[in-house]
Every structure is written in C-alpha cells, then in structure tokens.
Design a protein that fits this description.
Order of helices and strands: HHH
Strand content: under 5%
Structural class: mainly alpha
Length: about 70
C-alpha cells in the first residue's frame, strides 16, 4: 500500500478514532452494549488503523490521490 493521506490528516484520524473508542468503551462499560455503540467502536478502530498506516481505502477508491496530500 502506498500512502494516500498526509501526516496531519493521519494525526487527526488517530485522535478522532481514539476519542470514539474511549467514548464507546465508557458507554459500554456503564450500560449493556448496543449495536450503535459497537458500530462506533469499530469505526473508531478503523480510523486509528488508517492513521497509523497512512492509507484510506475510500480516498483510494474515489481516486482522490494527490501527491501533495501524502507529503
């Protein structure tokens, strides 16, 4: 895989993903897990993974690859 998101975008994705994970984990610890909370935690984990590897499959599929973005 080649990088298709930049460093700042990557850091924003990691921060947002960890925020979603913390929120959904706290809600699931307090109450019984619902489908919405599980979905939010999976989306948060996906955003963290995208940030770590600097690759977003949706950007790749849409063809929005730009060399300025990945630097």
């Amino acid at each position: 895989m080649k990088k298709n998101i930049g460093t700042i975008n990557s850091m924003v994705r990691i921060t947002g993903g960890l925020t979603l994970l913390a929120y959904s984990t706290a809600k699931m610890a307090k109450d019984r897990p619902s489908a919405t909370q599980l979905f939010v935690s999976m989306m948060g984990a996906q955003k963290v993974a995208e940030g770590i590897v600097h690759y977003c499959p949706l950007i790749d599929a849409a063809g929005l690859e730009n060399t300025k973005i990945a630097k």
